[in-house]
Amino acid sequence: MPLENVKKIMLVLSGKGGVGKSSITTQLALTLSLQGHSVGVLDIDLTGPSIPRFFGIEEQKVRQAPGGWIPVPVHDKQSLPARGSTSTSSSQHNGDAATNPPTEVGSLSCMSLGFILANRSDAVIWRGPKKTAMVRQFLTDVLWPPLDYLLIDTPPGTSDEHISLLETLLKSTSGPAAPPNQLAGAVVVTTPQAISISDVKKELNFCKKTGIRVLGVVENMAGFVCPNCSECTYVFSKGGGQVMAEEFGVPFLGSVPIDPAFVVLVEEGVRPVYPEGTVVAGKTAATVEKLDGEASKEGLLVDKYRDCSLAPLFDGIVANVVEGISKSG
Amino acid sequence: MAPLMEEPTQVDLDAPLKSAPKLVAPEPEHCPGPESTQAGVADSCAGCPNQKICASAPKGPDPDIPLITDRLSSVRHKILVLSGKGGVGKSTFSTLLSFAFASNPSLTIGLMDTDICGPSIPKMFGVEDETIHVSGEGWEPVWVQDNLGVMSVQFMLPNRDDAVIWRGAKKNGLIKKFLSEVRWGDTDLLVVDTPPGTSDEHLSVNSFLKTSGVDGAVLVCTPQEVALLDVRKEIDFCRKAKIPILGLVENMSGFVCPGCRYESQIFRASTGGGRKLAEDEGIPFLGSVPLDPRIGQACDYGESFLDAFPESPACAAIKRVVRRVGQEMGIKGDILGEDGS
């Protein structure tokens, strides 16, 4: 049973589509890796897999080994130079480099149906039983390396994929071979507007019914900071996530604003750069010198992500989640 | 079990439907579908506990299909709103499309929400707490306006926040009911809102509506490649299922800061956005709708954005798109029943 290698399994759920489940999964994975944990990401969104795109590994294919699939590696365990000391750093950064030790990052690998399709625009037109079989296969036939955390990204809704996922997981994690409390729980993602909240409430009720612990609610797309005038606009309203978390008595992990630089990082691989004085979630974003052309695209995704304004925010969210998990044993 | 590397078989979209037999065991992985003509006789059926049941079930077409066709014979046009990606604004667009059509008093509009696990339509119309009335003639849709009726699974839930934890087969059953039991009556346009993806709901809607004829599908996307990737899959689905594509709408394109009027591309079109995708795929581009926070607010409060902010640029953009949809469907004259522009 390949999941024996995995210490903790975390689900990322949302009743609503397009709220940023995959985006949040990506950032949770990168942050866990930055904190030194080894991480795996399993994408069970079969008809719309986004994880390969988010990690910039769309061209990769899954390799087959005796007994199963080998997940696609994003990066290996390694140490990254301290922030600011990369590439063209000027003298002003040298002081920081001496005080900041290099960051030890854990390994990161992914599995998604996107790696198996012959053509990226092919539609996967499957009815339920076929999806169920695929989800089961993803849980039983992927040869994960030893992992501290396995994040499972899900499609929107509460249907075939979710039922199959939980059936299989609950069975395997209650087995004698599984590490204790292997299925840590679920992070539920929402956006602030009422339409999204009403669907996500259904997902929380789903967790209640199936006995999955809710590790917390993340409110995504809360506010957009205009890059021209630094004014924050609540594009999709605000505060809904917190109210919902209180209503259901689950932890509220935080609000994540829209950061176009993160979208550009994912879409084009450009290291995030912010104009002087940009304040995101109460913190002033670090200003790194703007690099031209290809130089801005150099480096590992996890390295570039450290310059993203959302990185400190996720550092806090992940610390919260990890603490919550460790408290329960 | 050594996993297979090649892409497994997909559903046969052209297979004629027959009624599904009662099964004794869950459908296995390579099941051709209990409704298909291959049921019980395909190679993959060997050893399945359902084989006998499937093989001995009556082979004729699904008796409910003529029922659906008969029910929908009084519905003149049917449009699907599709997108491979979630949260791009399918339901918002379906809502705006219905409100816009319904602003023409000479039309009667129906809107069917086939998103069973995450129904948003009732909230967007402010009719969340309504229930369905059943009369001798069938289920009555919930009427939002005199000429705008809505049907959704939300109307059937005892509690507003109940999760609908259903597998595909059960969802298909409900969609069939929506088409065969609901008294749509004399309706000019039926808009069908769908969940994200290319799975049970989409296949069912397609096969149930095949004989009554669908005018086509409107695809909704947002500008960034992560979303376009999934919309490409939906275009592939439409082609395979032979659903005509009326065109592509790009939603959330550009956000004008209310403070300084500076336009930012929140979801940057790094690969050319919807327009480029439509060109590449050779489908009509119906237009872009800017990201206006007031659209979201109007949906949250269940009112018509078009009535609340008729002067806004987003409203003008939406009306342009709706007119294009009307044109693509081959409806003569202004679908909105307004003069000029």
From TrEMBL, chain A:
Q: Which family does it belong to?
A: Belongs to the Mrp/NBP35 ATP-binding proteins family. NUBP2/CFD1 subfamily.
Enumerate the UniProt keywords alphabetically.
4Fe-4S, ATP-binding, Cytoplasm, Hydrolase, Iron, Iron-sulfur, Metal-binding, Nucleotide-binding
- The record's region (Disordered) falls at 67-103
Pfam families annotated for this entry? ParA
Localization (cell): Cytoplasm
The reply to whether Amino-acid biosynthesis figures as a keyword in the UniProt entry is no
Q: Which domain of life is it from?
A: Eukaryota
Identify the species of origin.
Periconia macrospinosa
Q: What is this protein called?
A: P-loop containing nucleoside triphosphate hydrolase protein
Q: Compositionally biased, Polar residues: which spans?
A: 84-94
List positions binding [4Fe-4S] cluster: C226, C229
Q: Does the keyword Iron-sulfur apply?
A: yes
- Give the GO terms filed under biological process for this record: iron-sulfur cluster assembly
UniProtKB/TrEMBL annotation, chain B:
What's this protein's family per the entry? Answer: Belongs to the Mrp/NBP35 ATP-binding proteins family. NUBP1/NBP35 subfamily.
The molecule here is called Cytosolic Fe-S cluster assembly factor NBP35
* Organism whose genome encodes this protein: Periconia macrospinosa
The UniProt entry, under Gene3D superfamilies, shows: P-loop containing nucleotide triphosphate hydrolases
Check the record and name the HAMAP family matching this protein. Mrp_NBP35, NUBP1
Positions binding [4Fe-4S] cluster 1 in this chain are C31, C45, C48, C54
Q: Read off the SUPFAM superfamilies from this record.
A: P-loop containing nucleoside triphosphate hydrolases (SSF52540)
Query: What would be one Gene Ontology cellular-component term for the protein?
Result: nucleus
In the record, what lineage is assigned to the organism producing the protein? Eukaryota, Fungi, Dikarya, Ascomycota, Pezizomycotina
